[in-house]
Design a protein that fits this description.
The complex is a heterodimer of chains A (461) and B (499). With 461 residues, chain A is an alpha+beta fold. Chain A is built from 8 helices and 20 strands. In chain A, strand 2 and strand 3 form a beta hairpin. Chain B is 22% helix and 37% strand. In chain B, the strands form 5 sheets. In chain B, strands 1, 2, 3, 4, 5, 6 and 7 form a 7-stranded mixed beta sheet that branches. Chain B has a 5-stranded mixed β-barrel with strand order 8-15-16-18-22. Classes of the chains: A alpha+beta (461), B alpha+beta (499). Strand 2 of chain A pairs parallel with strand 3 of chain B.
Chain lengths: 461, 499
Amino acid sequence: METNKPQELVERGLEHSTADGCVVIVDRSSTANLRWANNNLTTNGVARDSTVTVVSTVAGSTGVAAASLSRSASAVDEVRVLVDRADRAARDAGPAEDAAPFVPETVDAAWADAPDTTSIEVLEPLANDLGEAFGRARSEGRRLFGYAEHDVTTTYVGSSSGLRRRHVQPGGHIGVTGKDADQRSAWVGQATRDFGDVDALGLDADLERRLGWAQRSVSLDAGRYDTILPPTAVADLLIYAYWTAGARDALDGQTAFARPGGGTRIGERLSERPVTMYSDPAAPGLECSPFVTAHASSSDSSVFDNGLALSRTDWIADGELRALRQTRHSAVLTEQPVTPGIGNLLVDVGGTSTQPEALAAGMERGLLLTCLWYIREVDAQSLLLTGLTRDGVYLVENGEITGSVNNFRFNESPIDLLARFTDASASAPSFSREWGDEFLRTSTPALRVPDFNMSSVSQAS
Amino acid sequence: MADVDPTFTDLPLERLADAALQRARDFGASHADFRLERLRSQTVALRDGALEGAHDGEQLGMCVRVIVDGTWGFASTFELTNTAAVRTAEEAVRVAHVSAPVSPERVELAPEPTHRRAVWVSSYDIDPLGVPLDEKVTLLGDWSRDLAAAPAVAHVSAHLEQYVENKFYADLSGTSTTQQRVRLHPELEVYGERDGRIDAMRTIAPPVGRGWEYLTDGRYDWAGELAALPDQLAEKLAAPSVEPGTYDVVIDPTNLWLTIHESIGHATELDRALGYEANFAGTSFATYDQLGTLQYGSPVMHVTGDRTVEHGLSTVGYDDDGVEAQTWDLIRDGVLVGYQLDRAMAGLNGFDRSNGCAFADSPARVPIQRMANVSLQPAADGPDTDGLIADVERGLYIVGDKSWSIDMQRYNFQFTGQRFYRIEDGELRGQVRDAAYQATTTDFWRSMSAVGGPQTWRLCGAFNCGKAQPAQVAAVSHGAPSALFRDVSILNTQAESGR
């Protein structure tokens, strides 16, 4: 079996199609990872993948039908088989609700370039530093647990309308949990594009510092607390809000962005503070695909939108809900601009301090969290989320961190938090503990919330 | 029973395995295994009876896992050639070498008999991927339009997920297995609004390890469940908000399976108990030193791990370590008596044998210790659900799963449901809304005062159990009878949100 260049797979696939319209998407990816526990590497691996997606469209008397099929494929013969199946499936399908003309011809300058790749060597310096960190941890009675991954995916999108787009998405992340002899735990995490900016020994030093904060431990009951959510925790919550911000679901009355009685809440003020939540493919350090890649149609993606250019979109500006994630189809239904989903999220609420801990300076008695975990939706209309604190809740007294506190279960709505916070730091690159593996390009501030609802105590440590 | 799809067995399975394993042997690997997998899938989504999207997927690839000088190495590829098999084995060895300096712990695998050329196919009649798409769209569309005709229903969504999984496994000891599994999950949900309040009601039909016949052969009462859905939604929209407090609760298996999954299934995974998931999914309060002594729940609690139950989502013939499927006790008379194991966990901790819980969700992933079908057993002569309800003076009856969350050591959990019914003086008194139950795992299971009989037992489950880094998704079933719990804390979720 021959492995062909991605561009050749696209061209031969389009050429082979007998449907009225065709899109071929090739995703070439490589990934390398290391995982460790109890100061010992546990699993590791490298993987390479090549997936081809074919979207065929056929015009009928009642509308345009579409079919989308994906498979692992690296040879022209395999793609031809896939195209035949997609063409057949489109002829058998009923009209697609989201049917629209394909995006017109655009050819990226880098279209002819080969896919970028990664390998285990990207993580070799990290492995060496980890060896030193493991030794240090062992000698100090600490244990380290963690995971590092680097992934590079090159995507090629071609269509029968002449579209030829290419995007390379590097991404990586590291998370490390430290435990001391008394089972106190702390966590640090970071997203990265190439691991050049990851300092494993520095992360270990951060863990040591946080475990130091926990020398004194205090038990607190459930209740509402003056709480500082660091950028990581804010990302944990606002990524979820972003994921539920689909226009079609709101229009159908299924989310917190639905207006009771019908329509969406676009135009409503969600916060009196200067809250801006936006996505921008060109955001420095958080760059992501500048065009839509849709492998299947759903409530907030459309295969007909493949290749559509993306640009900065303000979801919330000056506290007002400005946009929801739209396909061209849902934009018609909601009579709003076309604002497809974008692969990063940036939140700015006008804070100026650069260190989240600085927010503690004005705090008489409250909590500083590290991160949140097991976040799930409890109520769609209020976007009430539940979840837990994890690996470091610290007590702040008179502006100083004075000890660690037990974990809590919370019940809160991220939309409410944007209306209730009283202080914030500047936005900074962040890494969601819960969702970072799948959505790692975020920049968020720390928020101080005067009455964060800690619903019950968790015994977990 | 179906045969293994010849388009899979026609692939050069043994030739590629031989090439990869021989190369691993050349490098002195003490263990090497090879998997070639094909995972075919189809998702179909309808909104208000119209097709919103359908997508067919197929993942095909192979991987090699080695132990060299006591250290794991793993590599995978999408290229199915002898050259790629050899190169992938070499990459796996290279990964082991890079990892060796930070892997002082030597991997020891528990022994396992050799299984030569074993073949296993799950129990189903009709390959769902062989059924034309328009037949599925017609069926789901008809169901959706019937639901949409009800006055309380503003919108209807229908979703169908289907998988056919083929795995070929071979290792240096001479074991080779070829398997085929099928699973399918249909789900319909209706949405409505009343007095500014929006809500939804979803089917409680479980995902199953069955074929297309699940929707058409009449053994599951789809007509009855769908016909009831609009009235259930209307009642929920009109229901009073729950009074928070402490209640006796009767939990239907359609809800209890998820509590079992989170508070027992994950808590009895030995890798978690030993800290291997500490940075991600978390550890377990059920630590290894408590095996045989931890009073997990009340004496009426009997929980099994099972990779053999017919139509189970975690049911296999052999796991991804080449271990034959088994059934065993996890909790007996309320006491922790077992864990879920793979060969490495068993080998490092003195168990004679793995109980067959290794699983990788794709050829690109390394096998990890994953959940068996973990099930609460019924009482042989236990009551039916009405009998349990009759024993409650003031309480709630909970049906269907919805929101779920549990802490990193599996202590504190919170669950909601599709429907909460008030119980007064042993009888149901209509739905309440905005309810969630919250408890600590051991408090909750120790408060279980009665379990229902076999007539209440149902096998439920999910496709989306997440674990490990890189993240892997597994499907798993959980059987449960209805059960009665005393003095459980019930929250009002509107009050929690400050509204």
